Amino acid sequence: MNRPIRFLATASVGAVSVAALAGCGGTSGSAEGTIDYWLWDANQLPAYKQCAEDFHKENPDITVKITQTAWDDYWSKLTNSMAAGTAPDVFTDHLAKFADFVNSDQLMPIDTSDIDMTQYAEGLADLWVGQDGEQYGLPKDWDTVALFYNKKFAADAGLTDEQMSALTWNPEDGGTFEEAIARLTVDKNGVHGDEPGFDKDNVAVHGLGLNASGAGNGQTEWSYLTGTTDWTHTDENPWGTHYNYDDERFQDTIAWWAGLVQKGYMPELETTVGASMPDNFGAGKTAMTSDGSWSVGQYVGYKDVEVGIVPTPVGPNGKNASMFNGLADGIWAGTDDKESAVKWVEYLASAACQDVVGEHAVVFPAITSSTEKAKAAFADKGIDITPFTQHVDAGTTFLFPITDNAAKIQGIMEPAMDAVVSGQADASTLSDANDQVNALFE
Q1: What are the phi and psi torsion angles at 359 (to 5°)?
Q2: Could you tell me the sign of the dihedral formed by the alpha carbons of 82, 87, 89, 95, in that order?
Q3: Burial of residue 20, with CB atoms counted within 10 A of its CB: 0-12 exposed, 13-18 middle, 19 or more buried
Q4: What percent of the chain has pLDDT over 90?
């Protein structure tokens, strides 16, 4: 959910205190009897407020104070608070940050001996096991990637829902995926991207939206394409020690994808700074986007926009693909109330809370039975989320890369990828970046 790897970034920063009773001590930054809990997704805030209220009824001596901070500010605020000794007792963690937190002793191991770890979707719990074999988070949800498109724009372009649901892709000519992107692109004179006279420098509607360059992960940007070439980020996952950004399959994919900008089919990278890809879609500036399942509610919420959701395109290996990511709730090692923090994390990871989250139809909870409630809740709203769930059912997912040095890798790959997508460098320069990344593991 959601950026270097950009999850839904909302503009609000707020705190919600749920109930208010004294009891056990909290962290250095907490009131007595209060457990501080941080998350970044505003769309999930109502569900977790309900969980906190229900938890308080069962544990009247523990108050949960929820602070929601948008993604772009969340991590700097969290790391600064850790350094100051005022971090939240419990916080939503991401696999991109997990290893660094473990290595810096900021996460407390969780005893899972009394927890049924088989209740979670296959593989989710294992993502949060450190190299020391300890569990450093309990699963809260999972996500995959699909394509969102404006049905009116597609119909106006002569593209049927059936065609949009059966797109194919290759790095040589882009397949029917590029054909659809070109057709959906329209310049300010009403000329489509695949028609003579198309003005790529004066585009009214881009065929494919752009979130960011994707840095080294490309979760929603390009990983669903590289995944169909059988390329992998690392030599093994989790805890690989060698990255593969110098692989021809990767560089050919990035060259094709970045080329969409040069053709006028995708927005220029500089236009994405401070912008929201979903909001640009809702405003009719883009006709199609690749985005994560956590964003469904935002896309279907735009007024007067009929949204279609279809699978990512089938690639050279004859399949489509999606990165499989999951979030977890972790406990800050510096908490002054470990017992209450553990109780809250265990509750967050229980069916009692995850059923509530599922019924809010925002994300797919980690517990399999709670995911079924989410599917039903989405269906009640008339939303078909099969393009996301089919990846899991068909086994076409691959894991988010989990390695040491994540922050340093981000620092190398983001400017390198930015240069390629902005047209300042060729995709072959990513081999140099790859050397820098792999030097971190020597």
Answers
A1: -70, -20
A2: negative
A3: exposed
A4: 91
248-268 pLDDT tens trace: 999 999 999 999 999 999 999
Helices 95-103 and 406-421 cross at an angle (nearest 10°) of: 140
Residue 115 CB-density burial (10 A; 0-12 exposed, 13-18 middle, 19+ buried): middle
**Delimiting residues of CATH 3.40.190.10 domain(s) in the chain:** 13-143+327-387, 145-323+402-439
Name the architecture of domain 13-143+327-387. 3-Layer(aba) Sandwich (3.40)
Chain segment 265-306, per-residue pLDDT in tens: 999 999 999 899 999 999 999 999 999 999 999 999 999 999
pLDDT for 312-344, tens place per residue? 999 999 999 999 999 999 999 999 999 999 999
Q: What is the pTM of this model?
A: 0.90
Tell me which architecture the domain covering 145-323+402-439 has in CATH: 3-Layer(aba) Sandwich (3.40)
Three-state DSSP at 278 gives helix
CB 329 within 8 A of CB 137: yes
Q: With contact defined as beta carbons under 8 Å apart, do 51 and 356 qualify?
A: yes
* Phi (first) and psi of residue 257, to 5 degrees: -65, -45
Pairing type for strands 145-150 and 322-331 reads unpaired
Q: Is the pLDDT of residue 1 over 80?
A: no
CA gap 402, 230 in Å, rounded: 18
User: What tokens appear for 396 in the block?
Assistant: 């076409």
Q: Tell me the pairing of strands 203-205 and 322-331.
A: unpaired
